[in-house]
UniProtKB/TrEMBL annotation:
Alphabetized InterPro entries for the sequence: ETF_a/b_N (IPR014730), ETF_b (IPR012255), ETF_beta_N (IPR033948), Rossmann-like_a/b/a_fold (IPR014729)
Domain Electron transfer flavoprotein alpha/beta-subunit N-terminal: 27-217
Highest taxon of the lineage: Archaea
GO molecular function, one term: electron transfer activity
The species this protein was found in: Zestosphaera tikiterensis
Protein name per UniProt: Electron transfer flavoprotein, beta subunit
Pfam families registered for this protein in UniProt: ETF
Length: 267
């Protein structure tokens, strides 16, 4: 990539297939080994947005992820879907990271990549649902950011014009370099072709350890040691069976109101 090429970084999180994953109720944790890893669904929209911009402006798309070594297959999927380069941050010292430590590691990796014009993230992940990592990365890099982007109306090498859904749709301008997080409404991700999949199988996924980031980061801020918060336990709500009641007679309305009040549904 030359200095004048447009460079887009897409942050991707490998997540377990939530329809197949199991929860260890006794330990209160998600058994991530119980289901295959896949690209977080919202990150597919981020990657598609990046590829569409690359098709318009040219340049390069780099996918960056922090995950265990098994996630290399997920990054190959990102390459099959249009990423030109993939970087996997994997090291035991990254383990146990909360959103702050995760954002710090990802921001450090972006610094190591060098020049960039735009960072695109999914609005949230299906296994965490915090929506914090994208904005935190932007703050750590000192760049402007817009969250919950539902439409990219205009894109140049200097700025983006986007619609952000913050309770109501707002038309906003982002000067580059900057970061956006996108919702599932922003586009429909394309499916990779067989040719793309075969090409991705031969592609190189760069693997970086904590030591590889030591020249741009404080490694003590990675993983558990850099996390001021921890998930103590994951609770799986019990399934409740549906029940029904039939009210008849002249006082049926009064009985219905009384039943709703007992359930706390009327105030």
């Amino acid at each position: 990539m030359t200095d004048n090429e447009f460079h887009i970084v897409v942050l991707i999180k490998p997540v377990p297939d939530m329809e197949k994953v199991r929860f260890d109720v006794e330990k209160g944790v998600v058994d991530r080994s119980s289901a295959p890893l896949e690209i977080n669904p919202f990150d597919l929209n981020a990657l598609e947005a990046a590829v569409q911009i690359k098709e318009k402006l040219g340049g390069e798309v780099t996918a960056v992820s922090m995950a265990p070594p098994a996630a290399e297959s997920v990054l190959r999927d990102a390459i099959a879907r249009g990423a030109d380069r993939a970087v996997l941050l994997t090291d035991r010292r990254f383990a146990g990271a909360d959103t702050l430590a995760t954002s710090y590691a990802l921001a450090s990796a972006i610094r190591k990549l060098g020049r960039f014009n735009l960072i695109i993230c999914g609005e949230k992940t299906v296994d965490g649902d915090t929506g914090q990592v994208g904005p935190e990365v932007a703050e750590m890099l000192g760049i402007p950011h817009i969250a919950y982007v539902t439409e990219i109306r205009e894109v140049t090498k200097e700025k983006l014009l986007v619609v952000s859904e913050l309770g109501a749709p707002y038309l906003m301008e982002l000067k580059l370099p900057g970061l956006i997080t996108v919702t599932k409404d922003v586009n429909k991700p394309r499916l990779p072709t067989l040719k793309d999949k075969l090409k991705a199988r031969k592609a190189k996924v760069e693997v970086w350890s904590a030591d590889d980031l030591a020249d741009v980061a404080d490694v003590s801020r990675f993983g558990f040691s850099g996390s001021p918060t921890q998930v103590v336990k994951v609770l799986v709500p019990p399934m409740k069976k549906r029940r029904s009641q039939i009210f008849k007679g002249e006082d049926a309305v009064d009985k219905l109101i009384e039943a709703l009040e007992m359930e706390g549904l009327l105030r």
